[in-house]
Amino acid sequence: MNTRTLDPAKVAPALNAASGWWLTTLGRIERTTAADPAIRVLQRGIRSLPLGGVRDLLKGRPLGHPLHPVLVQVPIGCWLSAAVLDAVPGERRAATTLTAVGLLGVAPAAIAGWADWADQPPEQARVGLAHAASNAAAVSCYAVSLAARLGGRPVKGRMWAWAGLAAVAVTGALGGHIAYRQDTD
Fold it and tell me: Mean pLDDT, to the nearest integer, of 35-64?
């Protein structure tokens, strides 16, 4: 029986290095101004949409906090559950259904996210654009996964789903940074 355990003295430096790399990358995204003209146009366009009271609903004012983090639970939960079921023999239909339901849950979450993003200051808007791009990558992976699953290619479907789940992890970390950024100085 293998009784090896992780040595915290060896794990901590690796985690610190990964964390340092991640925070450095996020800092670069926050500071780069290359996309600012496009961001300003998009933000103005979203703010100019005649949404009336729907804008307050999308921004979560009746809840007292943003609606977007609540809505993302549907696709994330479905896709994570599909990944678990993909590991269980005979659960292809359920995993396919969860993949499809996750894709259906993307639109409301994205609409609420764009409504929030339109009012973000430049640093958060820049990271938000990266968040949107990684969301698009995740959704694309899951759309290809669903097509493969429905087309009788379950292995290809699972592989695309795993790629999608990796993109979901990145986009979740970006979204978390936007919402909870803390100065580490």
Answer: 96
Among candidate residues 70, 64, 139, 137, the one with its CA nearest the CA of residue 99: 139
State the pTM of this model.
0.89
Nearest 5°: the CA angle 137, 141, 144 is 140
What confidence tens digit (pLDDT) does each residue in 118-151 have? 999 999 999 999 999 999 999 999 999 999 999 9
Q: Would you put residue 90 in left (φ > 0), alpha (ψ -120 to 50) or beta?
A: left
- Distance in angstroms (rounded) separating the CA atoms of residues 65 and 96: 32
User: Residue 185's pLDDT band (boundaries 50, 70, 90)?
Assistant: very low
Q: Which residues make Cβ contacts (< 8 Å) with residue 33, sequence separation at least 6?
A: 122
Q: What is the rounded distance in angstroms from the CA atom of residue 96 to the CA atom of residue 102?
A: 10
Classified as helix, coil or strand, 87 is coil
Q: For residues 25 and 127, is the Cβ–Cβ distance under 8 A?
A: no
Strand, coil or helix: 78: helix
- The CA dihedral of 60, 63, 66, 67, to the nearest 10 degrees, is -70
Which residues neighbour 3 within 8 Å (Cβ) at sequence distance 6 or greater? Answer: none
What number of CA atoms fall less than 13 Å from residue 119's CA on the CB side?
A: 11
Q: In this predicted structure, what is the pLDDT of residue 2?
A: 62
